[in-house]
Specification:
The complex is a heterotrimer.
Chain A (H helix, E strand, L loop, with lengths): L3 H18 L3 H22 L5 H29 L11 H19 L12 H18 L3 H20 L8 H28 L13
Chain B lengths: L1 H19 L4 H29 L6 E5 L2 E5 L3 H25 L8 H20 L3 H19 L6 H28 L8 H5 L6 H19 L7 H8 L2 H26 L4 H24 L3 H28 L3 H36 L10 H4 L1 H15 L5 H16 L12 H24 L18 H19 L2 H13 L13 H30 L6 E3 L17 H10 L7 E5 L4 E5 L2 H21 L7 H25 L1
Antiparallel strand pairs in B: 1-2, 4-5
Chain C lengths: L2 H13 L2 H13 L9 H11 L3 E3 L4 H20 L14 H21 L4 H32 L4 H4 L2 H6 L4 H18 L18 H4 L5 H26 L10 H22 L8 H20 L1
The chains are: A mainly alpha, B mainly alpha, C mainly alpha.
């Protein structure tokens, strides 16, 4: 029977597919919220030691990824009054197919990357595939909020990757990740606010109008 | 062997009869058909004998340019001889009726003669056992096919198709010459037995030979991306010639690949993956492009690309099985590929003959202008329907048998180790190919034979079923499709023997000898049970409806509106939804203005890659022409420059040595 | 040896018309209505087989043979499934290809019977039906590939039989994903929401309903019964993958099978009440999502 951490990692991949396949922005935010919740449970599932370190990491992740960021993004959606993604660069079916190919690729190359032993054989492939899916969403979607969601998925992938190394570098990984997220929120807030104010919309294709 | 010689003589007699007796058309036709059928019967009997006894028949050699010309028949050649002669006889007979109308204004006798030359070239290719007769027969086959394609040469489209065809077929001949050169590096002579002795070609020469074989035989077989000569040539030729081109001539490419493997031994894994990839891509893209076509014969030609893809997929699985030490997988893959060559020859030629009958009866080839032909041409519709069900690979016909075998090979590879396991995703690809083929043939059958005619000309003579000389070959081929589908054991046994005889490690020694027989018999039970159930249910339905009266009413047209034939779905709109999902890959080119809409079909490889490259080459050539401006000074400078460069090179070489 | 599978097959055929009724009733109850009785389809079939038939003037023999082929192929496909978890009526290596091929033959006949009427409605429905099936077929093969990789068997009787129970713990995630994809495929193949709404009256929004627009009387009854049996077959597949019937004692398997069919039908009803029908160009996306799930299951087994 697969362990809890493997089950959580599989659900992370399923939320990636959810982000790729849905057209509604609120649905993508819900998917990242659930992904954040899964990632918050992951350290506890990997090292069931109930130490303060693990619990702190889990609690902080949960707070940031499942509560703060999604509610902020939901606020941004309400402010900008956007509902759906306009047709992305490569279409939803092609995005899903590329996402499946990214998962296949990451499972294929994960065995060949020279890395130290990790607790679960699924951590590295899932991390790689989440990073790739995040990059895919970031590059192919047109709305700025979708790109922010892609950036969050990318961060989640890096987080999973960091979890595989957490035994060796205490506290540094956590601090780095949380700082990343803090900086991310800061930039995201400024950018979204300014884009909305300048253009009355959050369509990033119109950023090309900046040059004249 | 003497029987094969007799068959050749009879065929030559048929050709001579058609040409020499052309002043008395009926006598010429009778002589032609009789001698053709006799020759084919003798040849097929010889082939079956070789297949059953499993022995190599006697060879006959003579002293001719390039060393002794050795001819012979082994089981592999005999397998390919079956479709050559069988389909050739059926198509030739059909052609007599098909071209009968054109006797006044076209050289029909010459066409019949050339058809015989084509058949003889094909027989020569599969029975040649040395390099030079192989290439000679290859060229005869290619050139006679070109002349047949140019039958209606007054049309610009036909001339263009012929030009593309002849250019590419010579490219393939060039590649084959290179391949044989690479294979003869260490060989003592030029016969196939001497080439294959001990597999002494060095590794690099073997890779070169395999690569050139992929290009040469793949081009002849019509694999993407070297397929773009196929649709033009097969659409331009007369329908009975298209049947032979599509059903048989493509298969000599497959024969060549099999023969090469028996010469060089087990190929390396990269060759298997190349065949697998090319097969999968050809299969999917072939059927997507077929969906987009408006012309009946071009559509059927693109389906040949798809089926060659399936054959290459099976061969790829076979090579991979051999390379990774899985003889059971290899046996299934190769057997499936061999079976599909025979089955495809049967149902593709049937479809082309049906297309010819439709063209003769209506004078049209654009699908969207036809309709409702099932009512006035019931036998043609029946034969075409059998061909359609067979090509989609549905039980209980023969397409199902070969696709089932290839599927078994693909799925069995999943039970092996890395990296052969990854081939299992080919099963999903093959499923996609089958579903797309179903879409295409429901479109074709529905638009052509069902409903009403979309462009009925008032007062025109209604289309009728063709005469017996054209109908008999179609019905014979349909019967063969059904027979093979219902009794797969009959073809599985010789195919397995041939694959084991290739001696590359694909014998099923690991498999229980009777397991496959039991499975094949159960397929027969399934087919028989299905047909029995259909008959029983039809009888029950008839009994149920015995007393009742069936009313006849107009088709429902939404509350009172009457539907006109013009309101029927056209083939283009039928396929539009599916093609839209494939985007620019489908090759449909849409031009839209405020009040018009026009969609045309392009071949993405030809019009997207080859023609722009050709135009670039021409432009570069035009620019380079400036060198030859006629000015003496420039010529002198060129000579001086070359001299200086040579001196420089010589000093460098001198310093190095 | 043949009695067990035969009896189970007859049981499934007898129960099959109740499944669409169960799905419709669940949907109605969840949307606040009473809904038609669960056994309504039995009454409909009885009524249809007693009725006279009206043929369209444009039709030929294809129209009359089509529904018969639909039923015959569905019954033949049912004979290939090991419904009692141990053996099927007919099984051979690679018979999953025959399973999909038989369903394809049924679809071929249905589509041609529809195109025979020369109506633009049927043409539209036929075009949509083959588009849906073009995307559903690779997904179905991927689900069956998951089973092949998990059990190492090449026949349906082997894949869904005793061997599956043995490998279930190890391959559970892939099998659950395959079952989810099979459920989505069941929705597509039997024309339920979100692929096609069986309760709509607008011809321009239908897929399956509009192909059979001109069928009446016993022909329509045959097609409705065939559709119900297809739902039962896919329900049996989903049940067989999630709860390997091979490990249960003989007397328990029909009970579990029927319970599984009921659960699948209720699940279809729940999905129908929660989702709206997808726009036509989103339906391939739905099926690509099912393929993606199945591909993920295959990847997990291939590593």
């Amino acid at each position: 029977m697969t362990g809890l951490h493997e089950l959580l990692l599989l659900c992370v991949v399923l939320t990636n597919f959810w982000v790729l396949g849905t057209t509604r922005l609120s649905s993508t935010i819900r998917a990242t919220a659930i992904q954040g919740m899964l990632l918050a449970l992951l350290p506890i599932a990997l090292h069931p030691s109930w130490s303060a370190h693990t619990l702190g990491l889990a609690g902080g992740t949960f707070l940031v990824k499942t509560v703060i960021l999604p509610s902020f993004l939901a606020w941004a959606i309400r402010e900008a009054a956007v509902r759906r993604e306009i047709e992305p660069l490569i279409g939803y079916s092609a995005s899903l197919a590329l996402g499946a190919a990214a998962v296949a690729l990451s499972f294929g190359i994960a065995q060949r990357i020279p890395l130290p032993e990790s607790d679960s054989t699924l951590l590295i492939p899932v991390a790689l595939s989440t990073v790739m899916v995040g990059l895919l969403v970031l590059t192919t979607r047109n709305k700025a909020l979708s790109q922010v969601v892609g950036y969050l998925v990318l961060e989640n992938g890096i987080f999973v990757f960091g979890l595989s190394q957490v035994e060796r570098v205490p506290f540094l990984v956590e601090l780095g990740v949380l700082l990343d997220i803090f900086v991310g929120i800061f930039i995201m807030g400024i950018v979204v606010f300014h884009i909305n104010r300048a253009f009355d919309s959050l369509d990033s294709t119109r950023l090309t109008e900046l040059k004249d | 062997m003497s029987q094969l010689l007799l068959a050749v003589v009879l065929l030559l007699g048929a050709g001579a009869g058609a040409v020499l007796l052309s002043r008395w058309p009926r006598l010429a036709d009778r002589a032609y058909v009789t001698l053709l059928l006799a020759g084919a019967a003798v040849g097929v009997a010889e082939a079956v004998l070789v297949l059953r006894s499993g022995a190599v028949s006697a060879t006959l050699s003579g002293s001719l340019p390039g060393g002794p010309w050795v001819f012979g028949l082994d089981p592999l050649s005999a397998w390919f001889l079956l479709p050559i002669l069988g389909v050739g006889a059926a198509a030739g007979t059909f052609g007599v009726g098909y071209l009968g109308f054109e006797r006044g204004h076209r050289p029909v006798a010459a066409t019949h003669g050339l058809f015989i030359v084509l058949l003889l070239g094909l027989v020569g290719v599969v029975s040649a056992q040395a390099v030079v007769p192989f290439l000679a027969a290859w060229e005869i086959m290619a050139i006679s096919a070109y002349l047949l394609v140019m039958h209606e040469h007054e049309q610009a489209e036909v001339r263009r198709a012929g030009l593309v065809y002849i250019t590419l077929t010579h490219l393939s001949t060039l590649a084959l010459i290179g391949m044989f050169a690479a294979l003869s590096v260490n060989a003592t002579g030029r016969s196939f037995t001497e080439l294959g002795l001990g597999n002494q070609t060095p590794g690099s020469a073997r890779s070169v030979a395999l690569g050139l074989a992929l290009v040469g035989f793949g081009l002849k077989a019509g694999a993407v991306p070297l397929h773009f000569w196929l649709p033009g040539a097969h659409a331009a030729a007369p329908s009975h010639v298209s049947a032979v081109l599509s059903g048989v001539m493509l298969k000599v490419g497959i024969y060549g690949l099999f023969r090469l493997m028996s010469l060089v031994g087990a190929p390396p894994p990269w060759f298997g993956w190349a065949l697998f990839g090319v097969g999968l891509v050809s299969g999917v893209l072939g059927v997507v492009w077929a969906l987009a076509q408006h012309d009946l014969k071009r559509l059927l030609a693109y389906h040949s690309v798809e089926n060659i893809g399936i054959i290459l997929l099976g061969m790829g699985v076979g090579v991979l099985g051999v390379a990774h030490g899985q003889p059971a997988v290899a046996l299934l893959g190769f057997t499936g590929a061999l079976l599909h060559t025979l089955n495809h020859a049967l149902f593709k030629s049937l479809l082309f003959l049906g297309a010819g009958a439709v063209y003769r009866a209506t004078g049209r080839r654009i699908i969207d202008q036809l309709g409702g032909l099932g009512r006035c041409m019931p036998w043609t519709a029946l034969a075409f329907g059998v061909g359609s069900i067979a090509i989609v690979g549905l039980p209980p016909l023969n397409g199902f048998v070969s696709e089932w075998t290839v599927f078994q090979g693909l799925l069995a590879s999943g039970a092996s180790g890395e990296p052969l396991r990854y081939a299992v995703v080919g099963a999903a690809g093959l499923g996609l190919i089958g579903a797309l083929a179903l879409a295409c043939f429901t479109k074709l059958d529905g638009t052509l034979f069902l409903g009403h005619s979309r462009s009925a000309v008032p007062g025109a003579r209604p289309a009728r079923d063709p005469g017996a000389v054209m109908l008999a070959p179609m019905l014979t081929l349909s019967g063969l499709c059904l027979a093979i589908g219902m009794l797969p054991v009959a073809v599985l046994r010789p195919a397995r023997l041939i694959v084991a005889g290739l001696a590359i490690g694909a014998d099923g020694g690991a498999l229980a000898a009777t397991a496959w027989q039991a499975d094949a018999m159960r397929v027969t039970v399934l087919g028989g049970g299905l047909l029995a159930m259909i008959l029983l249910l039809l009888m029950a339905r008839h009994w149920l409806a015995a007393g009742a009266v069936a009313r006849v009413a107009p088709t429902w047209g939404c509350a009172g509106a009457v539907s006109t034939p013009r309101m029927q779905y056209t083939a283009s709109s039928y396929a539009a939804l599916l093609l839209a999902a494939f985007g620019p890959l489908a090759g449909t080119h849409i031009s839209r203005t405020a009040d018009t809409f026009h969609s045309s079909v392009v071949d993405p490889v030809q019009d997207g890659a080859v023609l722009p490259a050709w135009r670039l080459l021409c432009r570069t050539g035009d620019r380079l022409r400036g060198i030859q401006g006629g000015r003496l000074r420039w010529y002198l400078l060129l000579v001086i420059f070359t001299l200086v460069a040579l001196l420089f090179y010589l000093t460098k070489a001198g310093r190095a040595s | 040896m043949i009695i067990g599978p035969l009896l189970t097959l007859l049981l499934v055929l007898a129960v099959a018309p109740a499944l669409p009724g169960l799905a419709t009733r669940t949907r109605a109850l969840l949307t606040g209505r009473r809904g038609a009785p669960v056994l309504q389809l039995y009454r409909d079939l009885a009524r249809l087989f007693r009725k006279n038939v009206v043929y369209s003037r444009s039709t030929t023999a294809v129209f009359r043979i089509g529904p018969v082929v639909v039923i015959a192929t569905v019954l033949a496909a049912a004979a290939l499934l090991p419904l009692d978890g141990h053996a099927a009526l007919l099984s051979f290596s690679g018979d999953l290809v025959a399973f999909t091929g038989l369903l394809g033959l049924g679809r071929f006949a249905l589509v041609l019977a529809g195109l025979d009427t020369g109506s633009s409605f049927e043409g539209m429905g036929a075009s949509r039906e083959v588009t849906v099936s073009a995307f559903a077929e690779p997904a179905l093969f991927l689900c069956l590939t998951v089973l092949v990789l998990a059990t190492g068997e090449l026949s349906l009787a082997g894949m869904l039989g005793e061997r599956l129970a043995a490998v279930w713990p190890g391959a559970a995630p892939s099998l659950v994903l395959a079952a989810a994809a099979l459920f989505m495929l069941a929705l597509a193949e039997t024309s339920r929401v979100p692929v096609d709404d069986p309760a709509t009256h607008l011809e321009l929004t239908m897929i399956h309903e509009v192909i059979v627009l001109d069928h009446s009387g016993p022909e329509l009854g045959m097609i409705l019964f065939g559709n119900a049996v297809k739902l039962a077959l896919f329900g049996a597949l989903v049940t067989g993958v999630l709860v390997p019937l091979g490990q249960l004692p003989r007397w328990l398997t029909p009970v579990v099978l029927l319970a599984g069919l009921g659960v699948v039908a209720v699940g279809v009803g729940i999905v129908e009440s929660c989702m709206a029908r997808l726009r036509m160009n989103r339906v391939p996306q739905f099926l690509v999502a099912a393929s993606a799930l199945a591909v993920f299951g295959v990847i997990l087994l291939l590593r």
